[in-house]
Amino acid sequence: MEKIAVISDIHGNTPALGAVLADIESREISHIICLGDLVGKGPHSSLVIDKIKASCDLTIMGNWDDIITKEPQFETLRWHQAQLRDDQVVFLEQLPFSYDFYMSGRLIRLFHASPRSVHERIQPWDPIEKRLTMFHNSHQTENIEGEKEPDVVGYGDVHNAYVQNFQGKTLFNCGSVGNPLEITQASYAILEGQYQSKQMSSFSIQFIRVPYDIELAIAHAKDVNMPELEEYMKELTTAKYRGLKD
Length: 246
Hints:
The protein has helices spanning 14-26, 45-55, 63-67, 75-82, 86-93, 128-132, 214-223, 229-238; strands at 2-7, 31-34, 58-59, 98-103, 106-111, 152-155, 162-166, 169-173, 186-193, 204-210. It is globular and about 50 Å long. Helix content is 28%, strand content 22%. By secondary structure, the protein is an alpha/beta fold. This is Metallophosphatase family protein.
């Protein structure tokens, strides 16, 4: 049996990433896959990119990873973009959209947000018809088995960890490392089974919550006069999305 750690949405938060990577190391996990959004929101996008490149077997593109490489539309994005080196921008531009593989006989697909776009948001409370589209193939997805749709789909983006089953198909979200919006602890998932095996055998999905130094993460943001600091502090300390009204 092998274990794959699935992490996502680090958003420039190095204390959270460090805590999660330490937890992964303590569990003797053989592979780490990142589902994107390395950058933005938090102050250390550049440091996170370097750490993810060194730690992860594969990194998939997130919506922030996409928009930060383009002409910035607002000042906050311009600030975050300015923190990156040219080689890091190239790295983000070249990230793949999705990853298909077998584990314990199940075709698994991982992407950031949906099979159609890194910018399409699918919530666990959306209508079932909308959630079922997460198993569709598209011109963006890898489709290693042609028209066959995946048995298991995992994604990030919404910063809410969950698992749901639909008549033999499983949809899960690994939550967020650096900007969780459920509880104020970093989140990731572990897939356990026979990696790259088409033979049906036991398989599991486990969710991990990791406490980290939130005050240190806030101090890092203050030290560099990061824009939208108050909104960032609120999200880290309350796990409530900045766009929601109190």
